[in-house]
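Researcher: Here's a chain I'd like modeled. Treat it as a single chain, no partners, no ligands.
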Amino acid sequence: MYDLVIRNGKVVDGSGLPAFKADVAVMGNRIVKIGQVPESAREEIDAAGKIVAPGFIDPHTHFDAQLLWDGCAKPALAHGVTTIVPGNCSLSLAPLKAKHRMKLVGMFNQIEEMPLKAFKEGVVWDWETFSEYITRIRKGLAINVAPLVGHSVIRLWVMNDAAMERTATDAEIAEMQGVLRECLDAGAAGLSTSYVDMDEKLQPVPSRYADAREVEALASVLGEYGRVLQIVPEFYDSDLTIARLDQLAELSLKYNIPTTFSPLFMNADNVDAVNRVMARVDEQFARGARVWPQVQTRPIDISFSFSVPSLLFMRFPSWYKIMRFGTTEEISAFFSDVDNRQKLIAEAAPLQGLWPTLVLRHVETDANQKYVGKTLKEIAELRSTTPVEAMMDLSIEEGLEAHFLSAGMGHNDDEKVGGLLNHPRVHIGASDGGAHILSFSTYGDTGYLFSHFVRDLNLMTVESAVKKITSDTAAIWGIPERGMLKEGMIADIAVFDLSTIARGEEKFVNDVPGDGHRYVRDSHGVDTVIVGGGIAWSEAKGYQDVRGEVLPGVREMVAA
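Model: Modeled as a single isolated chain. Structure tokens:
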């Protein structure tokens, strides 16, 4: 008798080959038979009319903190995601000395827009080393985790405050190499670094003080283990992005490691730039390098309130400074001051076409409920003011808890984005799950891939889409025994209905420690999600079994 049999489904096995009808039998945590399975099982799933696929892998998340209070990484698991990669963008929660905790929290708050209160109320700091952190997150883990270690925290560990001031000495670099080895031995899937991010004081993060010899020294350690180097390049400039991918290519060739950079956006005004980047990617692959650009599936939609600093305002110093450093009372007073208001209006003028289109999506008071769902242009007309002033006035009236939505800011040319997603060297990722929780909901990027680009637009086949987010990702990241439905492989499986799968509507929920809120999306069309042979989530019963593992990369990378 088998432990589990999934019957009557259409198997899309992750190889890219055509789907076929078959049963899938599981014993323990492994797939033991694919085909006709007449034998009974302790538990059975009728997948008639549904797709049976490998569990999806999300390679760019920031669930580092959430895993401390939620081993399911909700709602990612319910969307068919069975493996996540946290620790991106040079930031991880380990290795971390006690004296640097608040520094790291400040960086997470600034870069990933994670509320300070969530760390205060939801995190019990009982680790310092990477190994201790891994032991900590294993408790109640329902989703697989392939964690990166952040370059910025390695620098802090070795150099202390000097990490934020200068390049490293030879001795310090050697010590960083030793720390990285300890992290890789403890289960780190690779190293992440950033060339653009700023800390809570709007100064460069520690990784940005590293010179090329430091990065190369760390890449050499990755080469000892065959593990991944992830970077955030200067994505706003295609020439700088190309220079970074050339740097990655040389490291990939010299040390035989996979590399990846994120993000790469396809907007109407940057098509030529993206085409140039992808042409260089192809050139480097032709040389034998592995440099994978990460591309998200969803269009860029950003929500914001003035209670949390929004990256939307980074280009406007007066706005961002008061958002970053002001209290609720100080921001409200600043907005109310006539002189300040005129200064803010003038500074916001370059985006004068954007402000009228913003939609008011959430307020706290009954008095302003009548405006919810209207644009700032419509609200301004009703209140006999301008859109920018209406935005400030509503924020004051709502104690800064008025939320505004800027929809379709980019990455929304379906034909061009679809073409990019189909590119054989494009790595589908960049969800940012767990981060920017008051700005946008990334949960459901996988559902959007299938609903929009496969089902609605026919720009991808279901077989190619599944391959992109399963076996391709497992190969790039060296995630062992996952990414394929194959006898002998670990039973990480997603069962979904191609006719109904989709990301749900974005909604505002109160489930963050410290009485915090975030935007999430429910899954649609996902029937059952299996992790390590156990049903981790089902549409019928919700969250169930807890069999997640920490997945280190492997020394021998699968050729892509």
